[in-house]
Amino acid sequence: MTMHATATAADRLPAFQKLLKGKADLAFIPLGTDLHYLAGIPRDIPNYGTTLHPGGWLEGAWLTPGHAPILALPRMTAEFKGRGESKGIEIRVLGDHDDPAALARDIFASLGVPARPRIAISDRAHGESAVHIQALLPDAVFVSATDILRALRVIKSAEEIATMKEAGRRTEAAFAETLKRLKFGMTELDAIAEVNYQMQRQGSLGQTFTTSLYNTGPNHPLLMGRRLESWKRPIHPPCSVLFDFGASHDGLCYDYGRTVHFGEPDAEQRKVHATVMAAQAAGIAALKVGTTAAQVDATARKVVEDAGYGPNFRHRLGHGIGWDVHEPPFLTKSDHSVLREGMMFTVEPSILQDRSFSARVEDVIVCRPGGGEKLTNGFQELLVVTA
């Protein structure tokens, strides 16, 4: 079946219900990305620790191929998130002292759920939800609602692309403001905090993933994955600082990267940066309808390998992106997905060298018949902080 982009939430719910036919008798979509995409019900920035509400396992939309969704919400969620965001969906509120199992049975009866249903649940649903549903419907078989929905989500509409472009504008504007405040001796945490503050000033709800810096140079070992240790480090020249961050806008997630050199860059740093930029340009040119994800990765990777830095390009070239920061398909040698117009990817080659100079770049790219369309285009040169 050929699927096309669905422009609005009003289009997406009927399209998803059509896809459910023959695949599932019931779908459970908790508050999160899938429900935001389907029904326009906003999700929030997640907490570090879990906030539990009584009966929280049934929080989300319940629907069938032939019945409109019922949105079940614990009392605290209903009050704090409001009811105006449901866009006409029936809401049933679970009081703090109510029995969630009784409410679930009532929802199943309203939706005509059979005794032995096939239930599609989002991949990001909690195990707690599956356990409780299984207890109420012991003969149920579970399938992935996210996989079913992927046929719709993978191709972005013109509206989604415009929204993502605006997310990119806000991301790049935040970076421009951050650049004005970079100076010798500031810590990595200072720079990260500035990026996050500037994104919120630009109207982003928050960072779409944990803002990261990779700081390398002769006196700066690469401390990937050691945030609390690296955040304390003052940034002194000569070193290269690799930024990786993104702003959100109307449900879409941006992902962006640039390299800033502290101190006057030498020939090695300029070569590393130029190689990364050339690899990205090659990958973007290859990101065209009909090619495969693996071929795009190979095209960009060859530029890095030919320059002698192959082992230092440690990761895939990029990933699908949209309502989540990382989505399939992936630009890697093991992914042979054929690319279609409207798919969006990051193209993010890097050269990572411990105790030497590194570089990375990252932009969101839309797949087009003649090659990729970049959604951010600023700061192509090697950026330098001199004091």
UniProtKB/TrEMBL annotation:
Gene3D superfamilies xrefs: Creatinase/methionine aminopeptidase superfamily (3.90.230.10), Creatinase/prolidase N-terminal domain (3.40.350.10)
Residues making up the signal peptide according to the UniProt record: none
Superkingdom of origin organism: Bacteria
Family annotation (InterPro entries): Creatin/AminoP/Spt16_N, Creatinase/aminopeptidase-like, Pept_M24, Peptidase_M24B
Residues annotated as domain Peptidase M24: 163-368
Name of the featured protein: Peptidase M24 domain-containing protein
